[in-house]
Amino acid sequence: MEEEWANSEHRMGTSIMAVQYNGGVVVGADSRTTTGSYIANRVSDKLTQVSDKIYCCRSGSAADTQAISDYVKYYLHLHSAELDDAPTVKTAASLFQLLCYNNKNNLSAGIIVGGWDKYDGGSVYSIPIGGAMIRQPYTIGGSGSSYIYGYCDANFKEDMTREDAQQFVINALSLAMSRDGSSGGVIRLA
Fold first, then answer.
1. Which of 2, 136, 138, 166 is the most buried (most CB within 10 A)?
2. Exactly one of 14, 34, 91, 139 is catalytic; which is it?
């Protein structure tokens, strides 16, 4: 008899979030990766830098989200070279959205894109599974997010300082990790 985790896809039972603050964006994630009910990695990095000032938070299939992030990073590099200018956060989010939507039947990928550009300043976009694209002042995702909607709605404030935004992310992710059995490990911030 073969173990259930031996043939399961590596998934990220995840808590991810991004928050816009006065001057930028803070992105954060837990670090646990699961294979079924087996914890495959306690210290994985679910935050991926796709450009100098743009990050994404990845949830869903680890393989799918890593591949999509690599494609977007490549396309943004080409885009930047062609325009001789840094890409915007909206451009990065649009690329993620295009790839996720066009492959929605083949991928399990929920992405949060956050970063800073000279046109919009700090901005946050959510690309949930299925490929919609929504700009929000903050967004949460992954299996742990269902435990912290109330906390986030009650404690988010417009125009937070960087320190306040970081503490908001740390508190929210800590609460999600304490409730969600698939989230855990350490909190990573960027």
1. 138
2. 14
